[in-house]
Amino acid sequence: MLLVQQISKHEVLLVAYFIIVVVVLVFLFILFFYTFQRRKNKLLIEKVVAQKEYESALVQAENEIQEATLKNVGMELHDNVGQLLSVAKMQLRSGLSLLPDDKKETFKEALETVDLSLTEVRQLSKIVNSEVLANMDLQAAIQVEIDRLNRFSHTNSTLTVTGEPIFIEEREKIIIFRIVQECCSNVIKHAEAQHLVINISYEEKHLHIMIKDDGIGYNTHDNKLGSGLINMQRRAEMIHAQLVAHSKQGHGTEITLTYQPSPK
């Protein structure tokens, strides 16, 4: 009887040891799996962050190159092309008095064309030069662009503003303007719209810009057209803004930009 009890105790101890070993092995397996998954997730997060940082740096570099190029173009327009047109305008005026009356009307039309070209060059030099834009408030810069679009396109463009303007850093203001400018350019080039409406809405700590047209619309998943949208969204991400596009073929397009200045 005593032997049986000793054997039973021995079996109980073996079972207990076996259970402990199994529990320890399961615990070690769970710990290993958890550590492995945590390490894997960390590497994936680091990869995503690195990719985001690379894309952000790439967009920023592209933006800086574009701004430098536009600055040079703006200076070239203002200093060289503008001066040449001014000289041409003076020469035409000087020659006007030497012409017979029956030729003056045609000459006056040419003079008006040169005068209009000079005005257009001066306005264009403003909106392509980031240094000039930095000295303008956002709605004034957009109004210059709206006026320019109305002069040479068949689309009737209007700007409405509500609320009190908020402070926007120069760099971020220029990026917002370039996004609006690209939206307007896309409407003129592709939308076949009759009307383009831009609404700037200032709130206490937010800026909302809505750009809406009554054009043909497009498929936002179209790779060719969607690349422009992706580029604008990447620009918006640089200043922690959100850009959303809603479009339906035959029903126009609406793009909204929501921006909140960084706290000081």
Structural overview:
The structure is a single chain. It is built from six helices and five strands. With 264 residues, it is α+β, with helices and mostly antiparallel strands. It has two domains: 98 residues; 127 residues, 2-Layer Sandwich (Heat Shock Protein 90). The protein has a five-stranded mixed β-sheet with strand order 1-2-3-5-4, covered by helices on one side. A hairpin with a 5-residue loop joins strand 4 and strand 5.
| Class computed from helices, strands and strand pairing | alpha+beta
The CATH level-2 architecture of the largest domain is identified as 2-Layer Sandwich
Which runs of at least 5 residues are low in confidence (pLDDT < 50)? none
Q: How much helix is in the residues?
A: 55-70%
The domain tally reads 2
Cα gyration radius (Å): 33 Å
Instruction: Please provide the count of β strands.
Output: 5
Shape: elongated
Q: Which fold does the CATH topology of the largest domain refer to?
A: Heat Shock Protein 90
CATH level 1 class label of the largest domain: Alpha Beta
CATH superfamily of the largest domain: Histidine kinase-like ATPase, C-terminal domain
Record the strand order, biggest sheet: 1-2-3-5-4
- Strand count, sense and closure of the main sheet? 5 strands, mixed
Q: Count the DSSP helices.
A: 6
Strand coverage percent: 5-15%
User: Could you tell me how far the N terminus lies from the C terminus, measured between alpha carbons in angstroms?
Assistant: 85 Å
Mean pLDDT: 79
What is the H/E order?
HHHHEHEEHEE
